[in-house]
Amino acid sequence: MTQTRKRLALAGATGYIGHNLLNELKKKYDVIALSRNGDDKDDESHVEWRSCDLFSLNDTIDGLKGADIAIYLVHSMMPSAKLTQGSFEDMDLILVDNYARAAKENGIQQIVYLSGIIPEETEDLSRHLKSRLEVERVLGAYGTPVTTIRAALIVGPKGSSFPILSKLVKRLPVMLLPEWTRNQTHPVALPDVIHALGASVGREDLKDRAIDIGGPESMTYKEMILKTAEVMGKHQPTFDIPLMTVKLSRLWVTLVSGEPKETVYPLVESMVHEMVADPDKMVHGISDGKITFEESVRMALKEEQEEKDQKKQSGRSSQKEEALDVRSVQRVRLPEGRDANWAADNYVSWLSSFAKPFLTSSIANETIVRIQVPFLDSPLLELTKEPFQDAEQATYRISGGLFAQVQEDSKGRIEFRQIPGSQECLIAIHEYVPALPWIIYKSTQANIHLLVMYLFKLHLLRLMQTTEQSPDESEMIVPETNG
């Protein structure tokens, strides 16, 4: 009797790690490979491709349908729209909250998540590591067991950290090594990471655990640079310098490597931490990578060269037409006892009162909001509140107005989402296509939106201060009187 293969959903299937992991998982499991452009991929034996926009909760719920276990390899450092306003931390929170909610909706048995090694001094973490911890917490906030694999620098031909390091070695005639390059880290080869992720799937004893992994040796960033130079046959002089701050370093690394600052800045900021696998958080057969750093560098450089040769032979570059869309995410704090649904309603009423007499808002049929100026019959924006709501999430679909391009299949929306276990709320505009010419929009309406969001934050802050200063009468202490 043949055993039924479990079905795994893989978010990030087209990424650097996801592509390699997919090739391993399909040997043992049926894989649902999730990608924003999954419809462009051909299904193969034991692999079903699905188009899935993780910024959409409905899309994510559909994407995970039929899966037993889900793997999460998503990180949103790079912009996801023509204009992206907001931090990668807030973008990551929206993505992971959708994934965690969808996992609960589909009865997923386990989520396996790839994160970074977290140093002991967790109070003053870099933005990148704080975000990784926040993502880990939200993944488990809806009850699905989570297994977190934590790795430091992953050595492979693509990805983020190692290509930056190899480009520095290739391009610099002299290596100036700031103080942070003397910090210890624990590099791990890509095949060892793939093994750790795959070996964690379905393990009951690893649910709701964070596991550190690493290669056979820990070393400083300086030692990694020197060893990489040796493998490349480079012998440039090196100088230790105490002067270069992290802020200056990240700018220098961006300029030399040619990598986008959205990727470089958070990674360099994290290098101020010692990131070595903790023996107490290691699991035999999963944590102990076997490939040495030198061997992993040789493998990565060889694969990188092979990919370059293939690109030259094909001579093709597939570029899709760029969409003129907007994604904007801001984080606000809500008064105690208030939720995202309250924030959505309060925002609409506040917008009208704050901007009078230049701007007004009206509500029709309890669901349609029209934002307009007094001298125009047509609204600037028309918003329709989605019927599927809960206290922690509310969505207005952008359904019309002079400021928006709205087609039959438009997905533009404004979303209010409370971060689980906190009074913080994300207010996000997704897939909004402005009607104004792009240059005019960027210099006017886009900036006005940021100003309005800033003023709404101040409004919420005043509400919180007023609540603290004027508690309910039922909570007030009445002094005793002698009579």
Describe the protein:
- By secondary structure, the chain is of the alpha/beta class.
- The chain has helices at residues 16-25, 57-63, 88-105, 127-139, 161-171, 190-200, 221-232, 246-257, 261-270, 293-314, 340-355, 438-443, 445-469; strands spanning 7-11, 30-35, 47-51, 69-72, 83-85, 110-116, 146-151, 154-155, 175-177, 184-185, 188-189, 209-212, 219-220, 238-240, 326-333, 360-364, 368-372, 381-385, 393-400, 413-418, 424-432.
- It is globular.
Key features of this structure:
alpha/beta, disordered C terminus, 13 helices, 483 residues, eight-stranded mixed beta sheet
Quick summary of this structure?
With 483 residues, the protein is of the alpha/beta class.
SSE inventory with pairings:
Elements (H helix, E strand, L loop, with lengths): L6 E5 L4 H10 L4 E6 L11 E5 L5 H7 L5 E4 L10 E3 L2 H18 L4 E7 L10 H13 L6 E6 L2 E2 L5 H11 L3 E3 L6 E2 L2 E2 H11 L8 E4 L6 E2 H12 L5 E3 L5 H12 L3 H10 L22 H22 L11 E8 L6 H16 L4 E5 L3 E5 L8 E5 L7 E8 L12 E6 L5 E9 L5 H6 L1 H25 L14
Helix pairs in contact: 1-6, 2-3, 3-4, 5-7, 7-10, 8-9
Largest sheet: 8 strands, mixed
> C-alpha Rg, in Å?
25 Å
Summed up, the helix count is 13
- Helix fraction, binned, reads 25-40%
Regions with pLDDT < 50 over 5+ consecutive residues? 471-483
What is the overall silhouette? globular
The number of E-state strands comes to 21
Assembly state: single chain
Structural class: alpha/beta
| Mean pLDDT across residues | 89
